[in-house]
Amino acid sequence: MKLDFPPRFSERIGAISLHAVQKIYELDSGKSPEFHGGHRTIRAFDHDELASIFRELAIVIPIKNERLRLIEGVLSGIPNECMVVIVSNSQISPVNRFSMEVEMIKQYSQFADKKIILIHQGDPDLAKIFEEVNYTSILDSKKQIRDGKAEGMIIGILMAKMHNKKYVGFIDSDNYFPGAVNEYCKIYAVGFGMASTPYSNIRISWLYKPKIRNNILKFPKWGRTSEVTNKYLNALLSYITGFETDIIKTGNSGEHALSMSLAENLNYSSGYSIEPYEFINILEKFGGLLPADSPDIVEKGVEIFQIETRNPHFHEEKGKDHLTEMLQASLLAISNSKVCNLELAKEIKEHLSRLDTLYRRDKGSKVEAKKYVIMDPIKTIPIDKFAELVKKNAKTFNKI
After folding, report:
1. CA-to-CA distance for 90 and 105, rounded, in angstroms?
2. Would you give the distance in Å from CA 199 to the centre of its chain?
3. What is the crossing angle of helices 224-241 and 319-335, to 10°?
4. What is the pLDDT of residues 229-273, one digit of tens each?
5. 3-state helix, strand, coil in the chain (%, to 5)
6. What is this structure's pTM?
7. Is residue 331 within 8 Å of 232, Cβ to Cβ?
8. What does the pLDDT look like over 298-336, one tens digit per residue?
9. Alpha carbon distances (Å) from 288 to 28, 293, 299
10. Which of 61, 323, 330, 396 has the smallest number of CB atoms closer than 10 Å to its CB?
């Protein structure tokens, strides 16, 4: 893969280097080691370099009642060197979709010879394990694992950590194009390859998000939720630096990756607020705005890369209710932050009120007000004990 490097522009906030979107020039740059040092604005990664990072990378796929063909397509796009972690939150009854997923993945793995970890998010034994290792912020009032995307992602990070992976990347299971999935994995690898610190976050900026409208295929650049989230994240950044900026393009990027050393030190917000909250939490912890509790990370710095794809992002439409829930979660993650100024918090509150008015007009009821829980960093979990308990007790744990 070949892309522009170093990034054309970066915002620096405390210990954070937030890089502007980088452009890909070739999806496959071949064997070209001589190209690396001879060109000042382009960086090429050959097959061997990518493969060495893939071996350290786990790809986490949270799934919930997705069509099996879609899941298989996503799996086919992931490079064979990567370990795959599937965290399913699919229904068990009346139809056991989880068992169907297990059988499909076992059959697929026979042909692909791919390393796959599979576990169910609602496994009661897994909930007991979290209680035993004293990580209760992932549990609800009934001492079960909460039914949310963020909770599944945390389980995925822990599965990667217990297999000693250095990096963890996330890919949604509703992507129609395996070629796009393959590109995401390459982007994660080149991002980690460019990082000058062990604490890095790679975020996908989609070239286009195609939609079919009036039987015509359209190519908008931004999703409806992403456009709003990016606007308010940039407004927050502008307030902090004193200079207006639009550098953030990846506020709702479900496709993103973290170095394990950063992932284990972050707090996570439940449900669909997890992606924008990663930005917020990195700002809170390492932006120099609040007292730092990790001086070693502040010393080495945190890098956030935003890399634009060549493939469009074409995924399954989940309706207006899903978009409304995502937007509400994103806006609350920003406005509830300790670093959000009063003026911006008021503006976001007014936007949420308008969102509620539109929802009432469509549905005749209020937007359901959800409480978003902030979960503890996973570094508090003794990973060897966690791994032993999972392998011994979690009935839905499958290593294929």
Report:
1. 14
2. 15
3. 10
4. 999 999 999 999 999 999 999 998 889 999 999 999 999 998 788
5. 45, 20, 35
6. 0.93
7. yes
8. 999 999 999 999 998 776 666 567 678 888 989 999 999
9. 39, 11, 11
10. 323
